[in-house]
Specification:
Length: about 100
């Protein structure tokens, strides 16, 4: 990259010196970044909220699933016990 020092010298003179020109250029870059920083902050916040809602949804779904599994286990165990009791009762009736 080649610098045209004559043009930079003219710009610096108009700006009030090389230090001021450099500060103007840096401030200009900072001002151009402000909208992007705001967009990034808002986008990050929105993304975080969406991820939290998704996590909450799946946690609640898992809790429901765990409760359904427990209910099914209890029903199955009770069904086996009822069947065994019925078979025992039938055996006793047949044995008499």
């Amino acid at each position: 990259m080649s610098w045209n020092y004559a043009e930079l010298s003219k710009l610096a003179k108009k700006a009030g010196g090389p230090e001021k020109l450099v500060n103007i250029l840096i401030d200009s870059g900072k001002n151009k970044m402000k909208p992007w920083l705001i967009v990034a902050a808002l986008g990050g916040s929105a993304f975080t909220l969406v991820v939290q809602k998704i996590i909450k949804y799946f946690r609640n779904k898992k809790k429901i699933s765990d409760a359904e599994v427990e209910a099914a286990k209890k029903e199955l165990i009770q069904g086996i016990k009822d069947y065994d009791a019925e078979q025992e009762r039938i055996r006793k009736v047949n044995a008499e």
